Amino acid sequence: MTSIITKPHSRQCIGETAPQLFDYWFDPIEAAVRGRAREFIEELIRSELAIALARVRTQQEDRR
What we know:
Layout: H1 11-14, H2 28-63
């Protein structure tokens, strides 16, 4: 004889989930690396923009 030991409508079936262990994790090393990468990318974009603007200025001066 078998008996059913699980309940069909337990709290776990409803969809209540506990927050994950590392959902609110803050890693200072990761934050520092992200900051450095962001600074590098911003500086790269600034230098590319400066080069492009200088190129446009010289082309405009050559036309005069």
